[in-house]
Amino acid sequence: MNNPFFHLAGLFDFLDDVLAWVKDREGRYLLVNRTFLLNYTLNHPGGEGPAAEARILGQTDYDLSPSFLADQFRSDDEQVLAGYRVVNRIERVGQPDGATNWNITNKIPVCDAKGRIIGTAGITRTLNQEGIPGGTISGFEPALAHMRDHYQRAITNQQLAAISKMSLRAFERQFLAAFHLTPQKYLRKLRLRIASRALIYTNESLAEVALISGFADQSHFSREFRRQFSRTPREYREHYQTTAGVPVAKTAACRQF
């Protein structure tokens, strides 16, 4: 993939809290920044610097991540390759020490000089405990922080608009323009990704996973989950849990997801 702007990617090496990458159409990593490399070496001891980079470049997410995450990443890539963007998505991600952090992720198409989509690029950064970082999504930081902290409860657009100090109509219109999703679709996707982690990394019942992920009942949860992942929650757990590569947590640990 030849792109005259790739030399600018070195700027991301100066951002210690940002993981950045570029992939080709087949999902192979062509470029990663320094923080990506450091994160990789924490998860895969035994190679640092050029050795780590050599082990990443040319590989896909199926080589580097548990299969259930790789499938999610590939699903994102396919949407981006079709011309869509992942915009300011908040999500739970695992850390090498077993903890989970809140991240905010963006993914865009990479085009050649003729405008043809030839790959994908993305960045993800950790959110501070104090709240959503300003400047990137100005005006929606309070709404996203509220979703992050209260996704287990019912959240209405009216509540989010009031928190954002906007009228309901203005909030819904501007949110859709900024994130390419309605507020409720954004919230639902957040809950489904949290649920997908809980299915793999805990032994909670499906009803409990539905509850802790913010769904009103198991039936609604199962319906939405299958629509998003093309598997029922039970099928998803059975398919991926044995390949996740980590121990399943006991009941009390599920609250971390």
Verbal overview:
This protein has 257 residues and is of the alpha+beta class. It has a domain at 14-127: Beta-Lactamase (2-Layer Sandwich). Helices cover 43% and strands 16% of the residues. The protein contains eleven helices and five strands. It has a five-stranded antiparallel beta sheet. It is globular.
Topology:
Blueprint: E1 18-24, E2 29-32, H1 34-43, H2 50-56, H3 61-64, H4 67-81, E3 86-94, E4 100-111, E5 117-126, H5 141-150, H6 157-163, H7 168-179, H8 183-201, H9 206-212, H10 218-229, H11 233-240
Antiparallel strand pairs: 1-2, 1-5, 3-4, 4-5
Helix pairs in contact: 6-7, 9-10
Main β sheet profile: 5 strands, antiparallel
N- and C-termini, Cα separation: 37 Å
- Order of H and E elements: EEHHHHEEEHHHHHHH
- Looking at the structure, the CATH topology of one domain is Beta-Lactamase
Number of strands: 5
What percentage of residues falls in helices of 4 or more residues? Answer: 40-55%
CATH top level label of one domain: Alpha Beta
What is the mean predicted local confidence, pLDDT?
82
